[in-house]
Input
Amino acid sequence: MAESIYILGDEDRKKFARLIAAAWDDGVLHERYETEPRAVLSQYGIVYPDGVPTPPLPARPEGEFDIAELETGAGYGVSSVGTAYTIGTIATFLTSDFPVPEGGTA
Output
């Protein structure tokens, strides 16, 4: 049986971007997401349907990033290079129609 997928809307992608940034800075939050992702998603205002696999948290990129850039990348394409390229990669992940395996590419 094929797994169902769920695509986050613009506002939920922004919320998920905030969650990603917070989890990158807070190991306890990251661990909590690994064990109870739906509770953490709910804490960030994202309702995720039962029976649909929750998205994995992407690995933290090298270098610095700005939460505003991450939010922009979550809702819209980013075309510049450097940090924005990393954010663009995250945006691709967040807007994919399928989950990306850890270490994979969208």
